[in-house]
Amino acid sequence: MSQLTRRTIVTGGVAATAAAVAGLAPSGPANAAGPAAGKQAPSFYRYKIGDYEVTVVNDGVRHAPLPDGLVRNVSKDQVIAAAEAAYMPKGQLSVPFNPIVVNTGRQLILIDTGWGEGFAPTLGHMLTTMSAAGIDPARIDTVLISHMHPDHANGLKRKDGSLAFPNAEIKVPAVDWAFWTSDDNMSKAPNELYKNYFANNRKVFDGLASRVTQFEWDKEAAPGITAIASPGHTPGHTAFAIASGSARVLVQGDITNVPELFLRNPDWHVMFDYDPVQAVATRRKFHDMAAAERAQVMGFHFPFPGLGYVEKDGSGYRLIPTAWNPIL
């Protein structure tokens, strides 16, 4: 039996080409070409948590140059090297966005809403994805917002300003609501990024205050879904534990952003974190718990479909993606 090497692959390809030229290749239809699709199909994936059915409704992926200052406490060259080690194009960062819909059998609960309809060519696709998955936005009973950043809350409204989920109760962390709706806090915004965040929240939640319910940590935010305190990324950032029967999944929101960078380097201070020191402490506490419990973790910015296990790996962690399963 011959060994498989680069030389045998290359020479094998040359031999196959030569055989085709000599008329030795098998005959068959020659005109089977069709037009290329030119785009991906909507990306959704389903899995079970006990009796609950979860549908990941991908909002898209942002591909962009790695910004200056993405990590505050290491050099940009170190960040670029980490991204390259994860096979990202040099100087580029790819960030997925994965809202989920939880079907409890009695309610449909959406956790986070993505960027909003038509935000960018590669983003804002959640409503299209929901339609492909057979989920009617008008049937969503509850929208849980993990924290009030644009990629988690903007999708509450459609491009024309109408409600994307017209019959849903909107639930936000009480700590985040108090922080982002404060005029005093807005006047003290530390930088342009946070000034934009404050302005964005006023735009998104304009006219919605009467529809918003604030939830507290360590209590059920919705049936079978417990709010877990995880501040740092924002003052009121919240993770969730979804439990049905003996099954449980931890929905980590933005405790960790792109795992190839920030699970492996949990002490990095990310520019989007309001309190980076607290964010690091939260990151380590949460993922130490997840690793010790061997709990499945759902990551908003994990590679689609965003579900996996977190293991300790040296001074950091690594993500072990849950195997794709065609059967619920």
Task: Describe the protein's architecture and organization.
The chain has a 7-stranded mixed beta sheet with strand order 1-2-5-6-7-8-9. It is α+β, with helices and mostly antiparallel strands. The protein is globular. The longest helix has 18 residues, at 276-293. It has helices at 6-21, 76-85, 126-132, 150-153, 174-180, 183-187, 192-204, 259-262, 276-293; strands at residues 44-49, 52-57, 60-65, 92-97, 100-103, 108-111, 142-144, 169-173, 212-215, 220-222, 225-229, 238-244, 247-253, 296-299, 307-313, 316-321. A hairpin with an 8-residue loop joins strand 11 and strand 12 (238-244). The chain has one domain (44-321): Metallo-beta-lactamase, Chain A, CATH 3.60.15. Helix content is 26%, strand content 25%. The protein is built from 9 helices and 16 strands.
